[in-house]
Write a sequence for this structure.
């Protein structure tokens, strides 16, 4: 395996461990999974392989973080998310390089994907400050109908390999802006982009437990009757899944 960080301005963006509760950690099984460059077949990384127990740890961390994060003002969350957006843009070239290495798309398309995905963070950071309620007319006297928008809890996301950066940000941005916390399972083939985004989220000041990344087999991390999908873990209130047959089969 060649020097995997060659070509990166910031080698610290190349991460190979799980991100749970604000810390980089090995999976409970201590297994490692190979990630290869689809263009050359070259081994580029050996990443931590998570288990159901790791997913449960991440969910518990997200549950603990939900209270303080949801109680923060929308403006406060927006400020942190804006910092995340700016860090993503500032490190766009490195993020695109990582994406090319693990996913194989041309560099120009990878650069476009990074900026496209960052736009979701910018947009929802501002929209979160405008999540207003409403008062509705009723069909009877003595009644009042109103809508109150508030965060619902821990959200789980499963993302596909073909857009390993943009689909993460598309799911994380509205959830975090609304005050929810998240556990993310990236595609098995493309975990490195997810880890790099988590590194930048940490630098931006997103508190531990608010955004967690657990890589591992779909049947372990997102399998039916286990943790993120199917009969939900008691801490997960919403799941957004995208991917192929393995994800659909869960």
């Amino acid at each position: 395996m060649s020097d995997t960080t060659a070509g990166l301005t910031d080698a610290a963006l190349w991460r190979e461990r799980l991100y749970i509760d604000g810390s980089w950690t090995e999976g409970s099984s201590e297994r490692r999974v190979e990630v290869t460059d689809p263009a050359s077949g070259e081994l580029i990384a050996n990443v931590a392989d998570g288990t159901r127990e790791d997913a449960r740890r991440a969910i518990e961390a997200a549950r603990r973080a939900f209270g303080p994060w949801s109680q923060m003002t929308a403006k406060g969350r927006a400020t942190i998310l804006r910092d995340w957006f700016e860090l993503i843009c500032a490190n766009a070239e490195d993020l695109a390089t990582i994406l090319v290495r693990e996913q194989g798309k041309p560099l120009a398309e990878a650069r476009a994907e990074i900026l496209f995905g960052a736009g979701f963070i910018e947009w929802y950071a501002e929209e979160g400050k405008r999540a207003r309620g409403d008062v509705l007319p009723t069909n009877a006297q003595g009644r009042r109908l109103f809508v109150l928008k508030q965060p619902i809890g821990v959200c789980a996301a499963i993302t596909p390999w073909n857009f390993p950066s943009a689909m993460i940000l598309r799911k994380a941005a509205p959830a975090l802006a609304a005050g929810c916390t998240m556990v993310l399972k990236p595609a098995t083939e493309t975990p490195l982009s997810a880890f790099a985004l988590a590194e930048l989220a940490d630098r931006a000041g997103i508190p531990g437990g608010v955004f967690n990344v657990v890589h591992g087999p779909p049947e372990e991390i997102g399998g039916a009757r286990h943790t993120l999908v199917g009969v939900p873990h008691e801490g997960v209130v919403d799941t957004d899944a995208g991917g192929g047959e393995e994800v659909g089969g869960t």
User: Anything to note?
Assistant: Helices lie at 52-71, 74-90, 92-103, 107-127, 166-178, 192-204, 218-221, 245-249. The chain has eight helices and ten strands.
